[in-house]
Amino acid sequence: MAEEKENKAAATQTAEPIDRIVETEHRVTIGGREIRYTVTTGTLVLREESEKKGEGESEGEKARASVFFIAYTRRDVEEPARRPVTFSFNGGPGSSSVWLHLGILGPRRVDLGDKGDLPPPPYALIDNEHTLLDETDLVFIDPVSTGYSRAVTGEKARDFHNFKKDIESVGDFIRLYATRYGRWNSPKFLIGESYGTTRAGGLCGYLQDRHGMFLNGVMLVSVVLDFQTLLFSPSNDLPAVLYLPSYAATAWYHKRLTPELQKDFAATIREVKAFALGEYATALLRGASLPANERTAIAERVARYTGLTREYVERTDLRVEIMRFCKELMRDRHLVVGRLDSRFTGRDRDAAGSTPDNDPSFTGVIGPYTATFNDYVRGELGYESDIAYEILSFKANEAWRFAEHENRYVDVGDTLGRAIRINPFLKVFVASGYYDLATPFLATEYTFDHLGIDEELQKNVTVKEYEAGHMMYIHRDSLVRMKGDLSEFIRGAVPR
Fold first, then answer.
1. Which of 47, 456, 471, 479 has the largest CB neighbor count within 10 A?
2. pTM reported for the whole predicted model
């Protein structure tokens, strides 16, 4: 009996990885019209060509990873192979695709009310009348070590936890899906959020260069293409400049500004942007050579726009780091503001600390999204697995490597710019939230102002800003507006 168990275990370990696919049929009402669709849920095995056939391998191929996906395809269309298809993923970099999936794009979404507040459990999944399924088929991809995606037995998960291999594996999955499901001649789009925009920028180049796959459009939600715009350090003044308008927006939302600045949000933001890119940037560049009287004047302006005190701004050397701002803005009320969405506030154990214990805008969404997805994938989509669905893999995050960018900042802006120059039909949609302190809107504007494309190609880029945070779609008004903006973008990027 013991020998039989050992043999079974050995067989399981050496068994050839196989695809696991489940299909179900559903319907949803969008704009008063019923749409019927098929959901394909499961895993595809990614293989690499191998020079030598090993035991348990297909001829000339080696299995590397099993990638989980959920694809929504509309059924009532005349030419399914010519219908637009959008490949979606989130960031982290160790995040599954659940946020865009159940937040805005898919036909079902998490119910967080109008503002996006954390409701009491149990949580609800409701029909999403704002889904993009009326415009495009949707394929949600979980990169290796996220969701149900895993490296196969004998392969190391950490080999996928790096900038280059992540782009290659997701790109190879897109090629495989397009081949298996006959979508090579469909209008093709990518949509990524947060680090997913970094991945998307890299994929635009990889798909063109490696697979000859040209895209119609890429949609970037809460953008980080150039990490120099976000990473605070003593030798990098750029984040201090680019975060300032987002600090002002946050202070405005929580009514921490003077009555004059509280009157008109748009006018205040314009004023702060002009100061940030002008006098403030110049002052920071001057460093210790800035005269004391000018330093005091700049500190007063920064304090006025951020809701902080002049003394505090001076103690930060005029450079207010993001987590310090989250802790300091409402310290007098023992509150911290969220990093992903600064509309949200929470309480820390230590009100005297320098940085927050947690992000109240993240803890407000992780529970509802995790519970509803695990219920949905089994109950409605019929896909069963006993392994944990990794909503956000902290292990992957901590192990992530950027070997190609050692001694310099990660930047895929040039990759995206080159992709547009090669394919001048490639359109780009950019979505930013005013209250996003993870990827601030002025940093996004700065990135696209330095993309290296000429004036004619700059018309390919559409930029929209929303009155919410990193996941702007949890705010109902922004969700409605974003659906309209994305639909218009997709229609405009597909030749008629």
1. 471
2. 0.93
